[in-house]
Amino acid sequence: MREYFDKLRVGFAITGSFCTFEKALSIMENLKERGCEIIPVMSYNAFTTDTRFGKAEEFRARIEEITKKKIICTIADAEPIGPADMTDIMLVAPCTGNTMAKLAMSIIDTPVCLAVKSHLRAGKPVVIAPATNDALAGAYKNIASLMNYKNYFFVPFGQDDYVKKQSSMVADFSLIPAAIEMALDGRQLQPVLI
Asked: For 99-148, how does the pLDDT look when each residue is reduced to its tens digit (9 = 90+)?
């Protein structure tokens, strides 16, 4: 990895694909160990919803322990990210189909969407790690739109269970550091579809 990975300011936004939270937190720890400064952001649902995968309060506590920062969880707190030059790169991992749809249509009504918009105002890269059950159905057009937008890059992704969930796709979270490095150079990590 690049030497400057050590001081990279990573906005790490988490949306409600709850089954991938453990993978996301593992990557968050990995980036922190590499010396990144992590600015945590959570969508309303990710911040508040208890599921069979864990309690929201426990995830919040772990994220704040890893990052040593308060989670950005409101639109008001997300707005200064761009104007205050808080991030070098924005990572949305996991990124749900709902969030991708909003970003594709410039609907900015959640902390994560505003964090991305605020970060993008300076022309900096955004890395998307998709995790959605309808990637090959309703979400497909939004993924395609974002792939055509300037400064959006994807963590390579593929079908996670083509027998039981034919339309579902999830990013390979282990490729997030490589995707970040490529995005900082303005390039998409290939192959995108795995």
From this structure: 999 999 999 999 999 999 999 999 999 999 999 999 999 999 999 999 99
Alpha carbon 140 to chain centroid distance? 17
List the chain domain ranges: 3-184
- Class of the domain covering 3-184: alpha beta
For the whole prediction, is pTM greater than 0.85? yes
Distance separating alpha carbons of residues 107 and 113, to the nearest angstrom: 7
Statement: residue 4 has pLDDT above 90: no
pLDDT band at 5 (very low <50, low <70, confident <90, very high): confident
Alpha-carbon distances, residue 40 vs 13, 72, 149, 191 (angstroms): 6, 6, 24, 28
Q: Helix/strand/coil (H, E, C) string of the chain?
A: CCHHHHHCEEEEEECCCHHHHHHHHHHHHHHHHCCCEEEEEECHHHHHCCECCECHHHHHHHHHHHHCCCCECCHHHHHHHCCCCCCCEEEEEEECHHHHHHHHCCCCCCHHHHHHHHHHCCCCCEEEEEEECCCCCCCHHHHHHHHHCCCEEECCEEECCCCCCCCCEEECHHHHHHHHHHHHCCCCCCCCEC
Query: Whole-angstrom distance between the N-terminal and C-terminal Cα of the chain?
Result: 22
